[in-house]
Structure formats: structure tokens, C-alpha cells
Amino acid sequence: MFHIYCPHCCEYREEEEFHAAGQSHIARPLDPDACTDKEWGEYMYFRANPRGIHHELWVHAAGCRKFFNITRNTQTYEIKEVYKVGEKPSVVADEAK
Amino acid sequence: MSDVTVEAMEGKLVTDQLPTGAIVGESPLHHSDLASIAKKGPQQGGVHFHERKLKGLLTLRCAPSAEQLAVIESLLGVALPMQPLTSVTTDAISVRWMSPDEWLIIVAGEQAFEIETQFQEKLTGHYALVNISGGTTILDVSGSHVVDMLKKSTPVDLHASEFPVGKVVSTVFAKSGATICRLADDKFELVVRRSFADYLWLWIQDASREYGLVVKA
Amino acid sequence: MTQDLSKQSNRLQEGGRIDRSKPLTFTYNGKQYKGFDGDTLASALLANGVDIIGRSFKYSRPRGIVAAGAEEPNAIMQIGSTEATQIPNVRATQQSLYAGLVASSTNGWPNVEMDLMGLVGKIGGKMMPPGFYYKTFMYPKSMWETYESYIRKAAGLGRAPKENDPDIYDKMNQHCDLLIVGAGPAGLMAALTAARSGARVIIADEQSEFGGSLLSSKEMLNGKPAAEWVKDVVQELSGFDDVLMLPNSQVNGYHDHNFLTIQQHCTDQFADRAPNGQIAQRLHRVRAKWVVLATGAHERPLVYGNNDVPGCMVANAVSTYINRYGVAPGKDLVLMTSNDNAYRAALDWHDAGRNVVAIVDSRKNPQGTFVDAARDRGISIIVGSGVIEAHGSKRVSGVSIAPLNDAGDAVVGPIIKMAADTVATSGGWSPVIHLSCHTGARPVWNDEILGFTPGATYQKQLTAGAINGAFSTAQALSEGVKVASDALSQLGLAKSDVALPETEVVEEGKAMALFHIPHTKPTSKAPKQFVDYQNDVTAAGIELACREGFESIEHVKRYTAMGFGTDQGKLGNINGMAIAAKMLNQTIPQTGTTIFRPNYTPVTFGAIAGRDCGELFDPERYTAMHAWHVEHGAKFEDVGQWKRAWYYPKGNETMQQALDRECLATRKSVGILDASTLGKIDIQGKDAREFLGRVYTNAWAKLPVGKCRYGLMCGEDGMVFDDGVTSCLAENHFLMTTTSGGAARVLSWLEIYHQTEWPELEVYFNSVTDHWSTMTISGPNSRKLLEKLTDYDVSKENMAFMDWKPMTVAGVPARVFRISFTGELSFEINVQANYGLHVWKALFEHGEEFNLTPYGTETMHILRAEKGFIIAGQDTDGSVHPFDLGMSWAVSMQKPFSFIGKRGMQREDCVRENRKQLVGLKTIDPKAVLPEGAQGVLDPKAPVPMPMVGHVTSSYWSANLNRSVAMGFVKGGLNKMGERVFYPLADGRVIEAEICSPVFLDPKGERQNV
Ligand SMILES: [Zn+2]
Fold first, then answer.
1. Residue C620 lies in a domain
2. How far apart are CA C432 and CA C187, in angstroms?
3. C940: domain range?
4. Residues C939, C944, C946, CA angle at the centre, nearest 5°?
């Protein structure tokens, strides 16, 4: 059971108020019609499944109904940061690894 | 009446939704006959329950500019609470922060259309004001054990240090949801959806049983 | 009084925390006994000299009580005086005694004194190595269920009640600064320190009284008995508003981000049934800023031959029964130990006036305060030796003692035999690290204390006292203060003064690492040396597993079943690991440990369910007209959480008769449907139109004010997931409707695109589902009916098909939409929900002359199927796009923005020939109704498995057409009009159907356009 800080309500709430909505930062292609089947398939179906730092989109479903991002360690379940849609994460996986 | 349609300033429809004359509205808990329970039921107990029914409830959606804020304040008579999870309560009007771009406005039932009309006439720019009076009811719960009852129902921290008078949260309530505002140390307002009202009334009766439940007319 | 006491043959005349003035009668295995208020079931059974409390799982050997707390592996009871109040798998050591308690052994069938499995045990002992069940009972596979039920019954794993539990179990959400687990010296000290600083504290302990080890020892604090200090602290704590004290409460699970669950036994320590509707058990769901684990330690027994004969106990349990419960569970004690601490059991035994036969110490030269005390009392100490075997069958009758080598792994001298009825053993203490493991921390071996301590954690967790290997009371007290102070400073709270109580000075010599006592015979031939009592795992079994090639402790565990009982191997795991380590020539830390998982002790289903049962199991959502439907005999259907009227049978009508009547009445005159459950979303903003164009497959740019339009919503993959009518209320204002079940999903869909992809679009979405009551009047007379209730001109000329108009209906302002899901002339009347029932009733007041007939969801389904209208979720399943549905008319590929689904439905697979396509299915026999879900084949004579071409999605009897109507998928169906498809059914029948247009009635749409 996560304890999640909502960046809009500005306080911690219980996980049961939230829903996870998949990986963050998957932007819809600006011109879908120009995508090849492969490119479209990547956008639609391919997602990261890292051991460690991961960026996830969540929504405060029972609260303010706002979507926001969580940077989470999938191994330890630590939530490293939360940030609003449109913002960039400050904690990212070490590329060298 | 339905022919009372306010001219669409921002291309939006506003109509009076209440009948004139003798037609009485039926709140979501109407058929539970709370009035009889209030009369015949227990008069003492740790949890008090009252349906504050047939109020005017409006959802305001807006990311207000300074100009819009000023207009809204002049129309409501109170400033919008801009801090998350805060609220304003006066005798005439209550405003609850719901989200960075959403407020719940509670007024007397017949005043909802008046406010809608004024917004339609006076407020420009991007916003939405939606009448949800029929889809919502207000349950006032109070008493010496009200916090215990609520702790069975919602996961938010209700301790006075975390949840002072005036704080408002939208959260999980049993297997439904509610917007909870603390009106006094031992008094809370629950704004709930019509279709869930029976379930929540049943839940509150159950959760209050060990403390004794008093229904207030 | 004295008489009662005399029956309790092992009860001491004085001492303990029981109340001898309050005798309690209880029943165990059908026989009545007496105990006292303050007893546990275990202490009362021991007081009465009950030796055998169960039979072992595999070998069916008689077993007795070995411990005094949560770690007890044998005394697993079925509690309950009635069928409805049965609770299985209760540890007698944790069950407070109450008047009228009824308990029976869980293990042992037909009875514990002599049972059928006992025979199997004797002859099967040699035949039942580890893996026995896997090796023996798995073949033939078909017989497993037979074997299993027999084994379960004989092995006795407890049984669930056959009747509903009448008690109330509930849950409560809690928040605190500090959750302190365990109210022994460390926990109490931490609580006191935190409470005095104003912190919000919850302190929970599994026992009925706070105090932990202090309640079962003769220690002094501040020169007074420790229990008095406990009493003072408890009293002070109870004076703080922000301290919640939970005795009888097991902290069972430690989950991420400091979320813990506590099972509080509120009344089941007093009574079989909770009195006066009180809560029987409460599950506290706690979010703690900091957690202090002060869970103490369990004493580890030593493993030796026949160490399971009743009378073999853990040393500390002996002290606890004497000091806390006034029970000496035997007369002649032999204590075997590898450490000083356990000497206390012999001292307590001696001081209770019983005979200590000998202390057998594995060390050559024990020295320390307790050793001196034993010597002072003249107790015989046999050093450098071990008890290699206990004798007796239903109770210990004696022991064999032999000298051991320095390593403690070989017998090096002659055996001496001594008579005794009780053997207490101690191999040291194992910290209770279980909760710390729940969040994934791996325990760390500590050579100093010969045990595992909590590993590094990501939780805000602190540990104090014996869990850290700080076994002395003085250490526990000071660690309690320290962790609380650390937490307070993290919380930004000032620390107040707390003085440590004065403790007695105790000197203890070094303990020896000893787990498994050798025998003169090799382990495999020696009398059984039990490691895990509950699952009958022996030292020989572990050695065998290692010899058979299992090297990982996790594999050894699974092969032998060690630690898989309801006790999770609390007593045996470390001994088992030590034995495996030795076999594998490794150290214990190299061998590793197994990780404990939630829950610490078994949790009742009642506590897990809480109040989410019966009528509160799931919310039932009602429309404003619900009471009317109930009054008029409606049968209801669940649509999501909604209760929707399904059909309204009259008199003795069957369901089909009711449906036929409703269908005919609607098409002939007028019917009415409560459609309030339709999802409704208010959409406002200057970009509302643009947004609609992006989420719907068709065009919205030119929809005029006052008009309605049907739309399909697809995912990015191009597959239909919802549909509905959206109406233009004003230039920048729309009302979208969704399916009843899809409302929340659609709103969330709109929001996620608005918030994450197109935040620049000026639009707001708000749910108004509950705000509007929606009633649809449908049928040729619907206009005439509406005219009776409104002055508004609802003629075709003024209000055309797909128009909406504001008007007053029955005195209530309404928005009326001329849309149709039946193919008939229809008006969908929307009014503010507080007036829904008023308008509904008014329609019936005027509807009599038109035979206004209420119809439910089933008739709605039939009427729309006659017209070939789809229901998203029934005729779609997430794998069909609009073209598969034959609905290309609802897709505008020319829109400038690439709407959601457009790219997806152009993928290679979506444009291939021979996709499954939705078509009408006209059975050749008009009376035959295809079952929904039936699979079609083109050649019913083809060999099995026949190639399947698609399934039936909707199928009904149509009273209006006097034949069946159906829709379904057929591969390439849109190009197969007129061809035949066959549906072989499970009952052997084959129904033949012709592929046709799904529109069975009024293909030109004339009826709705009048
Ligand atoms: Zn929020």
C-alpha cells in the first residue's frame, strides 16, 4: 500500500484514492497518419519494465481527479518524487548501468 | 420554467431546472423517511445524522485570471479559496476547494439558478459552471463518536492536527466516495452522489451502531 | 476454592497473575475442566495435567504444549461452542480462557488419545520420508482428490464453520507518529518517551496484558516487582489522548510505506459470541510515520531424540507458566541449555517447590549470576553434556544424557539415564524479525547472539530490545528510549525527560552455538529428532533433502515442508537452517534464511472481510425511480453497480411472457424505460467541438445547436469501446451520453487526453449522470402521451428526429431528446433528479389510455436487436473496429485531426480480408433461438476441431416478428449475405442460420421518423 503525495492536493493520501495509468512520457505522435505500422506499434504496445527507477502516470481518482507523474523504484517501492504533467523528472535511472 | 433560458453569452446553455408551484422535490434519501426516524428513533447517541437536502450545488471549473477572480468574488460574495483543501463557509454560501481548477458551491436550492444566471451574464473567458443539485446530496454527521464512525469509512487522517475545521477533502468513503468538510470539532459535511446515497446511509447506520445513531430532522 | 484447585493438579497454591477467586469452567475435547480468570487455554490445560493436545501431522505422534506464546506449534485448537462460531487454528497459548469456552484438538482424528493415523504413523514412520506426499500420493493423478480429503481430515488442518458467523468484524483506519509493536520493556519505554513528547502513538501487543517478558519473570525494577512498573507505565499512557493502546492485538502485516495491519481481538477473549452486538474483531489499517519493532525474541528449543514427547518444552515457557499463570507443568524437571539465561527456568521450578532433577549444560564451565543461583540452591549441574533422547510415549518418563565433544556434534562418553516428566531446553533466543521481513528486508546473521536480526530496510522503521539481540531488560529499556528519541527528532518533536528504571545486575557467561544434539546413532537411525513440530520435519529429513541434492534453503524448505505450517516455523526454522548448513559444510549466513511473509499469525476471514459483506458487500446504485420499480414488482439486473429494472412480470407471467408483452405494447402503443443510468457528461468550452471530433470517429464541427448525434468511441488501437448520443446544447456546450457501465471510464478517457495530450484545448468535463433522471417513452403513441404533459409543440415539424428541445413536462423543466434506441418514435425526457419520480408518475397518470407499459433492460435489448443496434460491450469485445461492425457510416476519415482510433484501424491486420464482421443471423427454423456465445462453423460435418468462424453476440425471441433475431460475428460476413452458417450446440443440436442484415425490422427507419 503506497502512501502517495498528490502534487495538486499537496498532501499524502492512501493508495486506494489513486489509480495507476501506465508509463509516463509516452507522447502521442503528432501525426499518427505518418507513422509506419512499426512506429505506431511501438507507441501503442511497447513499454519499459525496468528494475529500478521508473516513471509512472497516476491519477488522484477519488480526490482532485488530476493526473501526475511518480518516479518510483520498482525494486524497493520507494517513491522518489512526484511531479506534474508537463514537468520533467529530476530523478532518472543511471544511464551507465 | 423551461422557457427561462438565459442568453448564451459564452455559447453555453443555462436553464432554470426547478419547477414552480407545488411540486416538491424528493431528495435521494426521501424514501428512507428520515423525518419519522428522527421523531420515533433514539434521541441519544454518539453519532448524529442529518440529510441537508435539496440544496443548490454547483461545480465551478476555472483556472481563474485575476479579473475572473474579482468577478467571481463579486458574484458569490466570498473569494474563492485558492489554497488546496480549504473552504469558505458563511450563512448564505459555502465554497469548497475540489481541485486546482474546481470548486463546489453550495447555496439554498432556489439560488442555484440565480448564480448560474449571474455567471452567464457577468463572467467571461474560459470556465464552466455546472448544476449538480439533483445528483448530489449533503449528509451532516456529528457527535462525540463521529470521528470513530468516519475512521471506519475513510482512509484520510481526521486528527484535528491534520484535519482542522474548514479543511475539505475528496476521498474514498466505504466503497464509494465523498467530499468531506469539517464544520466543527465534531461535525462534518459529506457531499455524496445521489445514486450512492442509499448505500452510504446503510453504511453509516452500520458503522454507527456501536455508538448509537440519532437521526436529526 | 481448594477443591477446585485440587482438581487442577499442576496449579500452584500461589503466585501468577491469575485470579483464583474467579474460576472458569471450560470444555476441551468434550470434557469439562476448570481454570481461572487470567489463564490462557494452554495454561489451564497444563494446570489440569492435560498432556496430549494433538496428534502430529504426518506421523500422528502425540504432542503436548511446548511454548507459551505465538510461536506454539502444537496446541492448535478449534474453538467454538456452536457451529456458527467455530474458529479454526487458534493457538491455545494465545486464547484467553473464558467461562464456557469450548475447544477441541485440531490434529488427531478420530481422537487424540488413539487414532487411526497413529497406526499409519507407527508402521509408516520409516515409509514417510520428506517428499512422501509428492512421491506417493501424486499417482495416479486422478486419485489425488481422494487422497487429499483423507489426508486433510486425518492430519486435521482445522475446519471452517458451516453456518454464517453471527459476529461483527470491522476495520478502522488509523494514523500515528509512532506505531510501537510489542509492549514489553522496550516497547513500553518507547511509548512513554514518545507520549510524553506529545506524539501520536499506537502501541499494540498480542497478549491480553501489556508487559511482555516482565510479566513472566521475577525481575525487579526500581527495587519493586517489574509488574508494578508495568502497571504505572500503562496507567500513565492511558492518560494521553493521543495514545491508543491495543492489547489482544496482533500486528500481522508490515507493508510498504509503513502501512501495517493489526488484528484486534475485541471480544473473543471473553466470549464465544460477541455480547450485545459488539465488534468481535477489528482490523486496524495503520499508516505510521515511524514504526518501532519491539517484538522481542522466541526461545529456540534444542533438537534431540524424541523431543516431541509431551513434557518436552521450551525453557522460557516453563518460567512463564510458573510465574504468570501459577502452573508448574510437571514434577521432575531436566533442563538442557547452551546458555545461562535458561537457568531461570530451573530456578523458578525449584522455587515453586518442584524437583529439578538436573541442569544439563553443553558448556564445560558455565559461570554467571544464574549459574551461581542454581548452585546455591543445590541443583545438580551436569556440564559438557546433552540430553540425547527423551523417553516415554504419552508423557516424558525420563532422559538419556551423554557427554558431548567441544563442538557439540558427537557423543563422547557413556549414557546416563534419569527419570523426569519434563524436559525444558534452550539453544538461545531468536529475535522476532518476522515483521521486518514483510517489506523485503533480508535478515542478517549475528554471531554474537547466534541469531538473525532485522536487515536494512527502506521503511521508516526502528527496532528496540530483544529483536536486536539486546536480550537483557536493562538493554531493552534503554533501547526503547533511544529509538523513541530518534523518531521524535525525525518528527521534529522535542524529547521530554524519561528516567530509566533501575535494573538488577546480571552477569551471563558466553552461550554456545548449539542446535542439534547428536545421538550415539547416526541421525538417520536415531530416534526422531524434530525440527518443525507442526509439519513433522526431522533433522534426518533435512539431512536427506541435502543428500538428495537440495542446496538452496528455499528448496530444502519446500521439499521438507519446514516452516510451511500455520506457525511459519517460528520455533524450528533456525535449527533447520543450522542442520542444513552443517550438511552443506557452510555457515548459517552462507546457507541464508527464508523470508517470512504476512501474516504473522493466521487471520480470520471475518477480519479480512470486515463490513464488506452481506448487503454492504458492494454499493448498489439506485435511480430516483428505484422505489417505483420495486413497488411494481420489477426484477433487477446488475449493470456495473447499478440496479436496473430488468423486466416487470405481472401475475404468474414467465419472464418470456413478460418480455413479449412489454415488446408488443411498446411497438403497438407506448412503453417507458428508466434510462437514468446512462452516463452523462457536461462538456463546455470553446474547444469542446474540436475535442469531440478527436475522441469520436465521426464529425462534430457542424452539429447545430439543438441537434443530437450518435458517436462511436475507439481506443488508439481502433477498437470500439463505448458509444452514445451527444447533443449540442449551445455553441460551446454539449451533453455527452455513454453506456451505463462505461461512464466512469469515458470521463477518465476524456480527462487523460485533455490533461496529458491536449491541455491547450479550452474545455471542461463534468459528470452529470446522477443529476438528471432520464425516462424514455417509446412507441407510436409516445407523442400523444407527451402532448398530454406539455404545452410545447412536439410535432414532427417543430421537433424532428434527432432534435432536442427544452420544455416543461408535468410542470417540471425538462430537456427532451428525440432520439431512439428502439426504432420507434421516442422521446427521452430528462429532468433534475429530485423531480424524476414526480414526472415518471405523471406519465403513468396520463398513460393509462395508451396502455403505457414499463419495460426493463431485457425488452430494451430485444427492441434494439430487432433494429440491429449494437450494445458496446455485448456486440463488441475490444477486438472489433467500426468497419467490423458494418458502421462505416459512423466514421469520418476526412477529418483534419487524426482522431483516436484512426491510425489504429488502418494497421495491416485491421484492413485484411476475412476479419470477423457483425451480421444478422436469421435461423432457418424461425422458432429456434441461438444461444449467445455459440460458435459458428461453415461445415457442421467437418472433423473436430471444426474451424470456427465467429460467435453469436445477441440473440432473442422477437414477439413482434414472431421469430428469433440474432447478431453475431462471421469471418468475412459482410460479403456472405444469404450464405449459411451452422451452430453445433453442446446438446448435439445444430442450428442453421442465414447470414443477413442485422436490421430485422423497419429497415428504412420509417417508424422513428414519424
Ligand atoms: Zn489530488
1. no
2. 14
3. 913-1010
4. 40
Exposure of C793 in the CB half-sphere (CA atoms within 13 A): 6
Surface-to-core class of residue C889, CB atoms within 10 Å of its CB (0-12 exposed, 13-18 middle, 19+ buried): exposed
pLDDT recorded at residue C135: 52
Q: What is the pTM of this model?
A: 0.94
In a domain, B16, yes or no: no
Chain A interface disruption, residue of C257, C284, C460, most A CBs within 10 A = C257
The C-alpha atoms of residue A54 and residue C764 are separated, in whole angstroms, by: 31
Domain count within chain C: 7
What's the number of CA atoms in the CB half-sphere (13 Å) around residue C332? Answer: 12
C615 backbone dihedrals φ, ψ, rounded to 5°:
-70, -10
pLDDT value, residue C592: 83
* The pLDDT value given to residue B10: 75
> Distance between CA C536 and CA C154 in Å, rounded?
14
C-alpha cell at C466: 530483544
ipTM of predicted complex: 0.98
Would you say residue A91 lies in a domain?
no
C-alpha cell at C799: 421537433
Instruction: Let me know: does C430 contact C297? Beta carbons within 8 Å.
Output: yes
Nearest residue, CB atoms, A9 vs list B85, B172, B177: B85
CB pairs under 8 A between A and B: 39
Check: CB of residue C937 under 8 Å from CB of residue C949. Answer: yes
Query: Which strand (E) or helix (H) includes residue C748?
Result: helix C743-756
Residues lower than pLDDT 70 in chain C: 1-6, 107-156
Rounded CA gap, C217 and C348, in Å?
9
For residue C865, what is its C-alpha cell? 436487436
User: Min CA distance, A5 vs chain C (Å)?
Assistant: 12
The CA-atom distances, in angstroms, between C797 and each of C313, C1009, C1010 are 95, 11, 10
Three-class SS state of B13: coil
Whether the Cβ atoms of residue C904 and residue C910 lie closer than 8 Å to each other? yes
Question: What CATH number is given to the structural domain containing C948?
Answer: 2.40.30.110
Q: How many domains does chain B have?
A: 1
Strand ranges, E, within C427-572: 429-431, 444-446, 451-453, 461-463, 530-532, 537-538
Partner C contacted by B195 (CB < 8 A): yes
Q: DSSP strand E in C484-610: where?
A: 530-532, 537-538
B177–A62 C-beta distance less than 8 A: yes
Can you tell me whether residue B29 is helix, strand or coil?
coil
Q: Can you read off the three cell numbers belonging to residue C721?
A: 469501446
Report the alpha-carbon distance of residue C485 to residue C495 in Å, rounded. 6
The single residue listed with the C-alpha cell 427532451 is C816
Whole-angstrom CA distances from C169 to B112, C279, C282 are: 43, 6, 6
